[in-house]
Amino acid sequence: MADDDSLLLWGRHALPTFQYTIRNPKHSISHITAIQDLSRTICAADQPEVASHGHLVWDAAVALADYLQAEATALGVSPATRALELGAGIGLVGMALAALGCKEVTLSDQRYCLPLLNMNATTNFTGANEALRPVVRELQWGTDDATTATNGRPMDLVVASDVLYNPSVFPKLVRTIAALASSETVLLMTHEIRNPDNEADFFAQLAAAGFECTRVPFVSTQVDYPDDIVLMRAQRRLRTDDRAPTPMNT
């Protein structure tokens, strides 16, 4: 986690940068340097009417990155895993996956967030680690961009943190997730509870689109996260003509 655990859930938002520790890196990346846009100048150009708040690393992102570190082996994370982060903001979760061994990671967000995403990816994956750098792509939910971002192939792993603050885009987000996912794709989402009815409605929409959604406890992480940070796992329901899911590293 962060070098100073007191910064994990408190005080981190006041820092222009902070260090996130990779406990068992597959490469030489032992820390992720998260650059935060406190002044909102890096992400200032062409901001949409409803911004994505991608200028900070929110608590749910740290929680998801920690869970991925703890469960990488159980999830089958390997160099062959194709992963995509939705609404990546700074890209902490996706960059952590790259440090854990994923060689094909895409960080996606709205266009105005891409300069900050690129800055973080470039800062953390240079020199000998440049080949591990995640790809940064614009992805507007509810459009055909999802097919472009994945080269027409489903992802093995889709991750997202704190993307449930605007209910008006939930149908678009569900359509994008559906476009990214096969029956073998694992979706992991974290959010901080802010409006329980809205958040429950999103997962109801995802379930109506054919996904089985389950809350997952943070039992394996190093930090006891508060109950208002929720981790959800979702996967397409199998039909009788679907193949059995295979590990992500095959």
From TrEMBL:
Top-level taxon of origin: Eukaryota
Annotated transmembrane regions: none
Name of the protein this chain belongs to: Aste57867_19782 protein
Lineage, opening ranks: Eukaryota, Sar, Stramenopiles, Oomycota, Saprolegniomycetes
Organism: Aphanomyces stellatus
